[in-house]
């Protein structure tokens, strides 16, 4: 039973390009959460999704960031026109229920570097 | 809004010595409490969690944590550290029945031979 799979592990983008980060939840998990970890900081919640629905996007920057979790396929975190300040580790977690404490499983993250 | 404070940014401990990592939270009610460990370049692994009941919680890798309501604390301990315990440790809280974790800033643990 594979865990939460994130790819790519490392992503380098030039300023102004788009970054697409993918997250495949654990088998049987239908709830996905994205967190961002800036250098030397803890993780900050970004968005919570269920299949085809955004439930809570209170942590998402208002511009350039979007997330989806389609009926088929992985969840995607998309960052348009990246800037240096977007350089961070982006972690995805999944759970079986919307009550995250009962079984959050984190992926290994995608480390985005903007040059 | 809830918040989590880990007062120690770095801790250096000798192999075999005991370790205690501090965590204080601010929240109106008792939240769910967690400790995660992150090895360099890796994701987060859950060490232990507290929801209710016995305030001393046992976790994996020989770690334990004690919830103290009066001090709003959830400190993590290990009696004897191993070199493999060198990592960053994060305390986190979750509002009961909530869906998003609030993390502390982390404590980086270095283990001396």
Please describe the structure with a list of short key phrases separated by commas or semicolons:
heterodimer, A: mainly beta, 4-stranded antiparallel beta sheet, 49% strand, B: mainly beta, 6-stranded mixed beta sheet
What features would you describe in this structure?
The complex is a heterodimer of chains A (115) and B (113). Chain A has 115 residues and is an all-beta fold. Chain A is built from no helices and eleven strands. In chain A, strands 2, 4, 5, 6, 9, 10 and 11 form a seven-stranded mixed beta sheet that branches. In chain A, a hairpin with a 2-residue loop joins strand 5 and strand 6 (53-56). Chain B is mainly β. In chain B, 0% of the residues lie in helices and 52% in strands. Chain B has strands at residues 3-5, 10-14, 19-21, 24-26, 32-38, 44-50, 56-58, 64-68, 73-78, 87-94, 101-103, 107-112. In chain B, the strands form three sheets. In chain B, strands 2, 5, 6, 10, 11 and 12 form a six-stranded mixed beta sheet that branches. A four-stranded antiparallel beta sheet of chain B has the order 3-9-8-7, with no helix packed on it. A two-stranded antiparallel sheet of chain B has the order 1-4. The termini of chain B are far apart. The mean pLDDT of chain B is 92. The interface between A and B is medium-sized, with 25 and 25 residues.
Concise structural overview:
The complex is a heterodimer of chains A (115) and B (113). Chain A is 0% helix and 49% strand. By secondary structure, chain A is mainly beta.
Fold topology:
The complex is a heterodimer of chains A (115) and B (113).
Chain A: E1 5-7, E2 10-13, E3 19-24, E4 31-37, E5 43-50, E6 53-56, E7 65-68, E8 75-79, E9 88-95, E10 105-106, E11 110-114
Chain B: E1 3-5, E2 10-14, E3 19-21, E4 24-26, E5 32-38, E6 44-50, E7 56-58, E8 64-68, E9 73-78, E10 87-94, E11 101-103, E12 107-112
Parallel strand pairs in B: 2-12
Antiparallel strand pairs in B: 1-4, 3-9, 5-6, 5-10, 7-8, 8-9, 10-11, 10-12
């Amino acid at each position: 039973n594979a865990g939460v799979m994130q790819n790519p592990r490392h992503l380098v983008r030039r300023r102004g390009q788009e970054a697409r980060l993918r997250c495949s939840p654990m088998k049987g998990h239908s709830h996905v959460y994205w967190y961002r970890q800036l250098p030397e900081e803890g993780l900050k919640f970004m968005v919570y999704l269920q299949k085809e629905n955004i439930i809570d996007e209170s942590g998402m920057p208002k511009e350039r960031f979007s997330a989806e979790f389609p009926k088929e396929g992985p969840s995607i975190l998309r960052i348009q026109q990246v800037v240096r300040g977007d350089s961070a580790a982006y972690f995805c977690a999944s759970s079986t229920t919307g009550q995250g404490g009962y079984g959050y499983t984190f992926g290994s993250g995608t480390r985005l570097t903007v040059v | 809004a809830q918040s989590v404070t880990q007062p120690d940014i770095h801790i250096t401990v000798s192999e075999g010595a005991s370790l205690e990592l501090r965590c204080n939270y601010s929240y109106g009610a008792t939240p769910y409490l967690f400790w995660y460990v992150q090895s360099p370049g890796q994701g987060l692994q859950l060490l232990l969690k507290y929801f209710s009941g016995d305030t001393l919680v046992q976790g994996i890798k020989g770690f334990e944590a004690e919830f103290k309501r009066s001090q709003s604390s959830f400190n993590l301990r290990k009696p004897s550290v191993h070199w493999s315990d060198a990592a960053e440790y994060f305390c986190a809280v979750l509002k009961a029945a909530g869906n998003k974790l609030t993390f502390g800033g982390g404590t980086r643990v270095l283990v001396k031979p």
